[in-house]
Amino acid sequence: MQFLNPIYFILAIFIGAVILFYFFRKQYTEKTVSSNLLWEQVLNEWQASPWLKKLQQNLLFWLQLLALILLMLALVRPFWLEDSLKGEHLIIIIDPSASMSAERGGKSRFEMAKEEMLELAGKLNGQQVTLIKAGEKNEILLSREDDPTAIRRTIDGLNLTYEHENMDKALLLAGSLSSGKDTALHIFSDSAVKNDLMEDLAGLYTVVHNIGEDARNVSLQSFGTAAAGDGISAIAVIENQSAGNIETGFTVQFENEVLFEQNLSLKANEQTTVQIKNLPEKPYYEASISINDGYSADNFAASIYTDPKPKVYTMGDVNPFAVKGFQTIGAELLQTDPAALKGFEMKGVVVAEGSTLSELPELPTIFFNTGKEKTILKEAISGDKDPLFEYADFERVYISSASAALEGEWETVLKSGDIPLIQRGMQNGLPIIIVNFDLSDTDWPLLPGFPIFLYNSYHWLSQQSDFLGYFSAGEERWINIGTGNGGWEIFNNKDENLYSLDLNKENFKAPVIPGTYQAVSGNQIYYFSVLLDEREKNAGIGESFTLNEKSSEKNSMIQRPNESLWFWLALIAFILIAIEWEVFRRGHRG
């Protein structure tokens, strides 16, 4: 044991003074007088315990002496060296990816990582902590925090995001936040490996905690569906990533209806393909393997079916060039009238022409805006790279004039100066493409790019009808709903309401757990699927290791002084002073 302020030992003079005061205190001789005889019996009982009498006579002295000694020791600040974490600034990186959900013994790797992080936080001795969540977009959860309660609270609140960890960017961020040799980096993952980036972190002391054990994983690598003849065919790829033979069941279903079942036997590290024919048409299909391995996130896959060749309904008078263009790409055309369609349930794409959107049916639409208010085009045509214009060249297209744009929240994908020529968006919750010029005012239908544009538009609309698309875990995406209902309710495949979104005020955000979901807006139901990242379909484990050990001390633990004893010494001294006062008070009262 050592002392920070040994000069305060000089206060021992006061302890000696107290002892001297007791030596020179006035002494009294005990004598028996006649009045005391009345209390002889009481005195005999009291004198039956002579040690108690002596203690009572000297108790104040010992309490005062001990309180002074403890106060003096508190002032000299005794301390001793103990093991503590290396670094004045600890940067902790946590991997929240799907593979961290793999379980062993009833605990996931992520839960075990949190326990180790809390244990690490319990060893802090005044160090600052920065906590980084290494998701697809790195997030700093703590920045140089030194409050142990805040650190533990933040660690307790961590959750899996199921996205693939972006460890390289997290390491670059950690390197920019480090303060040189006084910084220690701790990485909690399951498969972090040595690479050049780690070794180049300016000599930063780094400890990699790879959590977990072999999950004996069997993975549903891929699953997809497609139209084949009069039915739907599907294909799935299943891989045994374990070192032993396994047996598992493979199932394809829609909601609670089982559409296909098969038992599989796979050898160690074997991959097999399952082909399925003549599935009934359903909005979506869910495939799963029934083995109870340690990693369930890759035991599921979904495929949402959309009609690859929906019918095309031409409403009213449509320019013959548009009709011929759709016939060229092989679409099935039906001439219809808006009034005759009321009460009929249709599926397909509408092609219409006019100056207002008010009488259009609730179907995906290509609308040729032929309003009478036109503007002569003087500037060159320009546009963004967009799926609608893939392989469709506009450099040689001539457009003499454009109609005034229709009111609405549209995305302009082709323009002449500030004049929008082609726009797209959502009308009553359904996709729409608006062409703001008459086909008679352009030579575009005579060029090869026109049918290509119609083909791209046809497929884009057919894919957008009731299918929002595939999303990564927790992905945020802007969805143009136009003047449609912005209030959306998100349901899982068990019809459980997960949360609500207002797309007039916020972006669409997908759930984090892979699966098939429904977004309900009014009477419209949209399907979408959250996919597991391909890089997360393996639950391998890496070995823990340490880098740059020579940057300072050899071990992750170093010797630091523990100065906490002075507080307890002072606390006990004040308690003794309180007891001494009570003894003194009772003595005078008696």
Written description of the protein model:
This protein is of the alpha+beta class and 590 residues long. Among the domains are: 86 residues, no CATH class; 153 residues, Rossmann fold (3-Layer(aba) Sandwich), CATH 3.40.50; 154 residues, Class I glutamine amidotransferase (GATase) domain (Rossmann fold). It contains 10 helices and 35 strands. Strand 8, helix 7 and strand 9 form a beta-alpha-beta unit. It is elongated, with a radius of gyration of 40 Å. The two termini are 44 Å apart. About 1% of the residues have low confidence.
N-to-C span = 44 Å
Please write the CATH class name of the domain at 311-464: Alpha Beta
Q: How many strands, which pairing sense, and closed or not: the largest β-sheet?
A: 8 strands, mixed
Tertiary shape: elongated
Q: Rg to the nearest angstrom?
A: 40 Å
Write down the overall mean pLDDT: 83
Instruction: Predict the CATH topology of the domain at 311-464.
Output: Rossmann fold
User: Which range best describes the helical content: under 10%, 10-25%, 25-40%, 40-55%, 55-70% or over 70%?
Assistant: 10-25%
Percent of residues in beta strands? 25-35%
Task: Write the CATH homologous superfamily of the domain at 311-464.
Answer: Class I glutamine amidotransferase (GATase) domain
